[in-house]
């Protein structure tokens, strides 16, 4: 019997706890777990919104879960997990810094504290941070820590996972992901959602417009399908990362 979405979320939460954050891979693990938490939080919020009077607002949370899962796939399957994870952490730290009204000295102090903690168990920590900070500075292209098209990067991640699980993947996966993202963007950006079903003009020239109601069943189907996909991707990525970590520690 297929898992329900709450069961999938609970299973993912157990995997998250099992993975945790290790001192030797502090920054990459912080980035990884942060994306896992974003997926879980968005999925639970989407399910809450489905029960409310405006279930279509859950699409915004589905988009967040989708984005987090896609980035997590790329990070977890990377052969350069240590470096890419450090870059991801620095990237998101920079995003947060731009939004917070904090003194530069405070930001530097907090970041230095984290790096020092990592360096206590990983001697090359400062060198890796410096290198990835420079990579970030030089990145051009899409606004992400990869500096490349996310759909194409996910395509490569899926190839890694299908080999790991011994399964197959669609040949046009990158295009499928682009289409899914376009659909999610349509319902999460400001747009005209008013769809008339009947228009009447009275004798004085005023128009009465009756709105076509949105089908709750269709919304629920789309939201649940999107969440199921993102939760499955996140779970697969974490399982792969755990397997790789066990190999690395042998």
Keywords, please?
250 residues; mainly alpha; two-stranded antiparallel ribbon; 4% strand
Could you tell me the radius of gyration in angstroms?
22 Å
Question: What overall geometry do the principal axes of the alpha carbons give?
Answer: elongated
Helix content: 55-70%
Q: Uncertain segments of ≥5 residues (pLDDT<50)?
A: none
Strand order of the largest sheet: 1-2
Helix count, per DSSP? 9
The largest pleated sheet is described as:
2 strands, antiparallel
The arrangement of helices and strands along the chain is HHHHHHHHEEH
Q: Kindly report how far apart the N and C termini lie.
A: 36 Å
- β-sheet strand percentage: under 5%
Count every beta strand, where a strand is a DSSP E run of 2 or more residues: 2
- Overall SS class: mainly alpha
Q: How many structural domains?
A: 1
Mean pLDDT: 85
Task: Describe the secondary-structure layout.
Blueprint: H1 5-19, H2 26-50, H3 58-76, H4 81-99, H5 104-119, H6 125-138, H7 150-165, H8 173-188, E1 196-201, E2 207-211, H9 216-248
Antiparallel strand pairs: 1-2
Helix pairs in contact: 1-2, 1-9, 2-3, 2-4, 2-9, 3-7, 3-8, 3-9, 4-6, 7-8
Description:
- By secondary structure, the chain is mainly alpha-helical.
- It has one domain.
- Helix content is 69%, strand content 4%.
- It contains 9 helices and 2 strands.
- It has a two-stranded antiparallel ribbon.
- A hairpin with a 5-residue loop joins β1 and β2.
- α2 runs antiparallel to α3.
- The protein is elongated.
């Amino acid at each position: 019997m297929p898992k329900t979405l709450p069961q999938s979320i609970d299973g993912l939460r157990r995997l998250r706890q099992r993975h945790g954050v290790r001192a030797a891979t502090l920054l990459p693990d912080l980035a990884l777990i942060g994306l896992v938490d974003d997926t879980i939080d968005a999925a639970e919020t989407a399910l809450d919104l489905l029960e409310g009077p405006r279930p279509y607002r859950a699409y915004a949370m589905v988009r967040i879960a989708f984005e987090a899962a896609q980035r997590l796939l790329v990070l977890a399957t990377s052969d350069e997990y240590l470096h890419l994870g450090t870059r991801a952490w620095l990237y998101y730290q920079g995003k947060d810094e731009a939004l917070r009204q904090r003194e530069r000295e405070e930001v530097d102090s907090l970041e230095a504290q984290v790096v020092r903690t990592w360096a206590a168990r990983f001697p090359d920590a400062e060198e890796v941070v410096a290198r990835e900070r420079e990579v970030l500075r030089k990145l051009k292209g899409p606004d992400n820590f990869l500096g490349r098209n996310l759909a194409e990067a996910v395509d490569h991640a899926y190839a890694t996972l299908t080999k790991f699980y011994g399964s197959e993947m669609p040949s046009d996966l990158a295009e499928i992901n682009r289409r899914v993202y376009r659909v999610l963007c349509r319902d999460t950006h400001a747009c005209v959602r008013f769809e008339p079903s009947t228009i009447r003009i009275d004798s004085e020239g005023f128009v009465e417009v009756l709105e076509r109601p949105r089908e709750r069943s269709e919304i629920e189907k789309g939201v649940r399908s999107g969440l199921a996909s993102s939760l499955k991707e996140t779970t697969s990525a974490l399982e792969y990362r755990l397997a790789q970590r066990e190999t690395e520690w042998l």
